[in-house]
Amino acid sequence: MDLGISGRKAIVCASSRGLGRGCAEALAQAGCEVIVNGLDAERLDRTADEIARRTGAKVTPVAANVSTREGQEALLAACPTPDILVNNNGGPPRRDYRELDRDAMIDGVIQNMISPIEMIQKVADGMAERGFGRIVNITSITVRMPLAGLDLSSGARAGLTAFLAGVGRTYASRNVTVNNLLPGKMDTDRLRGGIEAAASASGRSVDDIRAAQAGEIPAGRFGTAEEFGRICAFYCSAHAAYVTGQNVLIDGGLYPAAF
């Protein structure tokens, strides 16, 4: 399917690996010019080169921390008039809520709520003036299905969801959409790290823990960054203009609900 976004310019935050990279690659395959972003400049350059080689797209790496004003300015200097923004950022590490002090909580809220809002503030009006904009926020299944130890991440992402529920709809008449993608158990470094930690704590093997967790998912497997990216690209496409304010679970059926 032609997604109708060839030639569009996309900023994909935190995209040197994992789900962000999957989104960047899918948008590049759709013909977008893509700004990729991460903290590790060497890994980011490799990612940009690999995506450009596979897709033929123009891919520009911007090594910066999107949680900072300087990082956001660097992204927008590389792409002043984006048509697409994919908000993504690392979440706080798993930790018992009793261990969270004020500074840790502030940092978590900056990472997963304030920073994406700041990026939207900087780009949404320009998108509306030009008559096209697609904003996708990568949040988490834990917004709907809390997981002990990820309370800070879940709370900040839920705050982002509520904040944008009204804001996003104010742009709908000008062909700017704002949607959230909620990944479940995706086969990323974060998931693998959690499995290794669980194996170490329990004395069970990594393979046993992995199989047990995959067995809890109706699809019987973990999701991939590639399929996540393709879903993201669809919500950024010309065909998704009538979809906004939605929270889309990408979880293989893990969240048990009818609505």
Count of individual domains: 2
CATH homologous superfamily of the largest domain? NAD(P)-binding Rossmann-like Domain
User: What's the total count of β strands?
Assistant: 7
Identify the overall geometry: globular
Structural class, from helix and strand content? alpha/beta
Strand content: 5-15%
Q: Secondary-structure element sequence?
A: EHEHEHEHEHEHHHE
Biggest beta sheet attributes: 7 strands, parallel
Q: Which range best describes the helical content: under 10%, 10-25%, 25-40%, 40-55%, 55-70% or over 70%? A: 40-55%
The CATH class assignment of the largest domain is: Alpha Beta
Radius of gyration: 18 Å
**Level-2 CATH architecture of the largest domain:** 3-Layer(aba) Sandwich
Explain what you see.
The chain has helices at 18-29, 41-55, 69-78, 102-130, 151-167, 189-202, 206-215, 225-235, and strands at residues 9-12, 33-38, 59-63, 84-87, 133-138, 176-183, 247-250. With 259 residues, the protein is an alpha/beta fold. It has two domains: 9-185 and 225-250, NAD(P)-binding Rossmann-like Domain (Rossmann fold, 3-Layer(aba) Sandwich), CATH 3.40.50.720; 187-222. It has a seven-stranded parallel beta sheet, with helices on both faces.
Compact overview of the structure:
46% of the residues lie in helices and 14% in strands.
What's the layout of helices and strands?
Layout: E1 9-12, H1 18-29, E2 33-38, H2 41-55, E3 59-63, H3 69-78, E4 84-87, H4 102-130, E5 133-138, H5 151-167, E6 176-183, H6 189-202, H7 206-215, H8 225-235, E7 247-250
Parallel strand pairs: 1-2, 1-4, 2-3, 4-5, 5-6, 6-7
